[in-house]
Input
Amino acid sequence: MDENIQPLKERTGQSLFWSMLNNGTLQLLNILFGIVLARLLTPGDYGIVGVLTIFTLLAGNLQSSGFTQALINLKNPSDKDYNSVFWFNVIVSFALYAILWLCAPLIANFFHQPVLVDVSRFVFLAFVISSFGIAHGAYLAKNMMNREIAIINFVALLSSGIVGVILAFNGKAYWSLAWQQLIYISVLNVGRYYYVSWHPTFKLDFGPVKRMFGFAVNILFTNIINTLSGQILTFIFGRLFTISQVGNFSQANKWNTQAHTFVSGTLSQVVQTVLVSVNEDQERQKRVFRKLMRFTSLLAFPVMLGLALVSREFILIALGEKWIDSIPLLQVLCLAGAFMPFYTCYQNLAIGCKRSDIYLWCNVGQIVLHIATVLLVYYFISQSMIVVVAVYSTLMVVWLAVWQHVAKRLIGLTWKETFADVAPFLLVSIVAFAITYFATSWLSNVVILLCAKVILGAVLYFVAMKVAHVKIFEEGLQFLKQKISSK
Output
């Protein structure tokens, strides 16, 4: 048995290492570029591009149509499978762009922003370009080439960030954000073509697409639901509030998303592949899943609760007082963001167990409940943005109970086991950051206060993990020491 487990353990550890390095580096670059752009641009500029995000993401979901996950879920996908998905994505993307190009005036009218006609037609080019690299991205993920993914993402983000900053510095306003998106996707595709040995041919055969369709269509609808869930507030706010208010929310949501994506992004590049590899042994799959949940807890709670703790100082120092209205929004979003990476674990469990139908309906129920509740709160309880965001965030946490029920059905994971895996990390984080908050409350200088909170909070969390001899924490440190010594 050890002979079977050890290779998977080593491979997973290597993949998590490169995935974490990838996401850590990307988030650092995102922070640096985000700070510079936020100082050069206005909330209105972010609002203009922010309201288009939901259209771009939905179009991206439709163009890939769930076949990326379908390819990863195949035991041994062939060149014919990749080629079929490649041409399907390309054809669909051109059709979607034509539709959205015609819809641009309607989008501009809906948000009362005439400039969105030209901006949207330009921004939507990004998913046309991305269609040429989706199959290659699936190839990288399937083969757990996370080192290569890390390099590609780093170069793409660096290139696009530099272009965005240069344009913003020269007064191009929201166009700098639009160009940043386009450059990022273009460089990403170049990198994928460089590292992937497989390349498409002109021999069209959509037979593999037809065979994968039953699985992929559930993933497609679920991805659409997830996109709606993640972007519905920006969309609704774009209609109900001023563009500057939308910009403040967009800014807060951006930092919250970047923080919890550091964890969920690290997991997403590994979880499905690992769970698929052990899906024929339910007990082993359960052990692997519980370990992934502990790893998620180890990172998610200190990262997100820590950001909530320092959000005021971070916004004031990094972005300036013009973004002060985004601070309470960021604090509320971070409390829910601490639980968002667990969705990655649960959803990939359903996919790994070949239950894309469950994956679909759980997300359908979630988005229907969220939309109904948000509209109910706005029209009948409070028209305050912070109240709506707080209710929405609470529902995001509560809905995890549904996914826990799914995990119990699929692999027999009980509430007691999940609580034992997750609760200690949450409790330690709360205690460590509560002590940090009160211990530093007497400081008035925002720079000193930020540094004190970060250092004291990190030290307290680290010491608590060491004193308690948390196994997943010690294994992580040991693995990092081995990587450093081997270099």
In short: Confidence is low (pLDDT under 50) at residues 1-6. The CA atoms of residues 461 and 467 lie 10 Å apart. The longest helix spans residues 2-40. The radius of gyration is 22 Å.
